[in-house]
Amino acid sequence: MNRTSLMTHLILICGAIFMTLPVWVAFATSTHAPETILREGLQIIPGGHFFETYNEVLFVEGGVMKKVTATAMLKNSLILGIGFAVGKVVISMLAAYAIVYFRFRLAVPLFWTIFMTLLLPLEVRIIPSYKVVADMGLLDTHAGLIIPLIASATGTFFFRQFFRSVPDELLEAARLDGATSWGFFIDILVPLSKTMIAAILIIMFVVGWNQYLWPLIMTTKEENYTLVIGIKQIYQVLNEGGELPQFQKAFALTILATLPPVLVVLVFQNWFVKGLVESEK
Questions:
Q1: Which residues pair with 68 in a beta bridge?
Q2: Does residue 254 register a pLDDT over 60?
């Protein structure tokens, strides 16, 4: 191994340690008793309370109102993440298809108007979005959490660029075969877009899973909390009733919140990379 290769590997190893060390410390700390954490602080060596802590977090009702478990919050987070990702992909593909293939007069200005919404974060439109959802009676529902967020300028941009790279000969051949606009979309464009769909799904799932502000505003009942909210809310009164602060449970929730996005990226990483860099259509 030459010097350049050795330095490259050392840098990568250092970067990996730098990124994973906080997660390991959180996991190791979550396996210790609250007395140990209070007395000695964060831990780097795992303790002997792994099963006790994670069983209590996952299956014993807790929180401010004693009505929620991490299992319920995991379910809510999965529904939000999957619904968020699938909704954004569907809406983005349909919008990009219309802009690229229907060629109406305002297609280009409309696309750039959609693209400019990237400059407007959720916080800018959160009050009108909340009012619309409240007027529709969708507060504290999964539909209210998902539907207002599924429009995606990012997804529309990526799918537009992908569809523009598809040869026009495919459209002409589909027309000669008698394919309708919907048939061309379903039978040709969707199969061609598999890797792009996978990449966008992964990105949007992680973004949806990590949503904090919108679910915090939309949910008023603990049983509707997502895991990201639960990390803060379920143990916000750590020392209530004179009990020891349950920091190990908060760290256990952090680990549980980290696992699904990591697993999704690891399992689908090949599709993710191909969808972002593949040039052959």
A1: 62
A2: yes
